[in-house]
Amino acid sequence: MYLVLRKLVNYMTASYSERIYIAPQGYEDERIYCPAIGLNAEKVILLTHTGNEGDSRANRCQERVEEKLEEESIEIENFDCDIFDPIDALKAFMTCIRRIEPNADVIVNVSSGSKITAIAGMMACMFTEADPMYVRPEGYGSRETAEGRMGDSDAVSYGMKEMVDLPAYPVTEPDYEFIQVLAYISDNQPGSGIKGVIIKEIGGFLLENDFSAVETSNAEDPEKIYPLVNRKIIEPLYSQGLIDKQRFEKSIHIRTTRNGERMLELGRSLISDEGDVI
Description:
The chain is of the alpha/beta class. It folds into 2 domains: 6-165, Rossmann fold, CATH 3.40.50; 176-271, Arc Repressor Mutant, subunit A (Orthogonal Bundle). Helices cover 40% and strands 19% of the residues. It has helices at 9-13, 30-38, 56-71, 86-98, 115-127, 143-146, 176-188, 199-208, 226-239, 258-271, and strands at residues 19-25, 43-49, 75-81, 105-109, 131-136, 139-140, 157-158, 162-165, 197-198, 243-248, 251-256. Strands 3-2-1-4-5-8 form a 6-stranded mixed sheet, with helices on both faces. Strands 9-11-10 form a 3-stranded antiparallel sheet. Helix 2 links the parallel strand 1 (19-25) and strand 2 (43-49). The longest helix has 16 residues, at 56-71. The protein starts with 8 loop residues before the first helix and ends in a 7-residue tail after the last helix.
């Protein structure tokens, strides 16, 4: 029998269209399928590692998970991603969650994959209304060894002692305008070298798109909002290491840094709907 914490009763009694359970597929089996069965999930989405094709251990774990879920007539979907890449894992969680019907009950198992998927899963829940859950196993290693019998297991743990719901404090998504500016710089800077996008061009972009940073300027000439653009856009991005500034040919050229490109990729995955690119 599965031990389910009383505080998870709301999962069992709430009104919803369907219950969707999302879990990274690592070297785990019971830690994945036991909660799905115990929570009466209608569908399970397994985040499978893109490199698992040649990983026989992971494949055997996944086969056991799918076999048990099929026995309970639970729908299964596999979603490939790099579970060891923070942004790719977060994008996978966000994509899966966002395409689910709004009135569905979405539960994310943050304990069945890597530390990276645990963090990515928690972040995805913070940006959405999905509920994160930690599954505490009965033990680690094989059940046979724990019971004093000969035997081995592909999974790193066995059984399910309890399911613990975790608080996912809502957080604000990255500032949409900053992400748009990073995208503009990234799209318009030359492939390499010192040259980038000059502040005048960024100011023109802000005016053309009626950004809040310049809405009080009442200016139409990008030259006249240079100090405003520098204070409200350039300096915040520069102080966070997202852009670099170089003086070249009497102008200051702005280029995205490696961290800026990573933030842009992250911001796009968090802000965009259905994978649309900003």
